[in-house]
Design a protein that fits this description.
The protein is α+β, with helices and mostly antiparallel strands. It is built from seven helices and seven strands, in the order βααβββαβαβααβα. It binds coenzyme A.
């Protein structure tokens, strides 16, 4: 496999055939990491692809990475979700390319929306920080019930509920197009991770 042969692009209708593989990759990674993840159906992923709301990474005919966007709160917010890279293609900078392309797609389609993501992943926090996202409390994210209902498939959903949706194991990160871009310190994702762990120890343990 050569990194140069991988194309990262806005998904087209014909890429809907990869929906099942994407769901499997997401599910298997969640099992391996032992972390929570919102489960998605083939139909859901397929709709994102057909609706022009997804990014795919292809090595020839093989799907090796994916992510999608969705708008919430009547278009005030756009979430970037479902980032996955085939385990054989990790640590090559592919997630960075997919994140950049997803960011480009979100800004093109919803230029006035705030972009957000919720994640437990350090690589994702790093990449978000580089794009200008900042860590925020859940209260600064969308209050769209349907978005949060998507967390029901996550094994940590009881934690979110127990905290009245104020916090969970994920960190919320927000990009506000109205805020001027500040240079992020390379250490900020690690700092976010540590702060998050500390707050969880004190707030989440019963
Ligand atoms: C998270 C994931 C998308 C990263 O994909 P990737 O293509 O390997 O990431 P990249 O090569 O673009 O690396 C991005 C950065 O994260 C770092 N990184 C990658 N994997 C890492 C890991 N397991 N632990 C810590 N840092 C990691 C890289 O070193 C790089 O940082 P740098 O630019 O400072 O060197 C991939 O591991 C994956 O699909 N995991 C399972 C699904 C998942 O966790 N999705 C996120 C859900 S929110």
């Amino acid at each position: 496999m050569s990194f140069g042969s991988i194309t990262v692009m806005f998904a087209q209708k014909e890429h809907a055939k990869y929906a099942e593989r994407i769901c499997n990759l997401i599910y298997e990674s969640a099992l391996q990491r032992g972390t929570g993840i919102a489960k998605r159906s083939n139909e859901y992923i397929s709709a994102k692809i057909v609706g022009g709301k997804a990014v795919v990474a292809l090595d020839g005919d093989k799907l090796v990475g994916f992510s999608y966007i969705e708008c919430w709160g009547h278009g005030d917010f756009v979430a970037t979700s479902g980032l996955i890279v085939d385990p054989e293609y990790r640590n090559l900078g592919l997630a960075a390319r997919i994140k950049e392309k997803t960011f480009e797609l979100a800004r093109l389609r919803f230029p006035f929306a705030k972009l957000f993501s919720i994640t437990t992943s350090l690589p994702v926090m790093k990449l978000n920080s580089r794009l200008g996202y900042k860590p925020v409390t859940f209260s600064e994210l969308t209050d769209d019930e349907e978005f949060w209902a998507g967390c029901q498939g996550c094994c940590n959903y009881d934690i979110l509920q127990r905290n009245n949706r104020r916090m969970c194991l994920c960190t919320g990160m927000l990009y506000d197009p109205k805020q001027p871009l500040e240079k992020q310190s390379a250490l900020s994702p690690y700092w976010i991770m540590i702060k998050n762990k500390i707050s969880k120890i004190f707030h989440l343990k019963k």
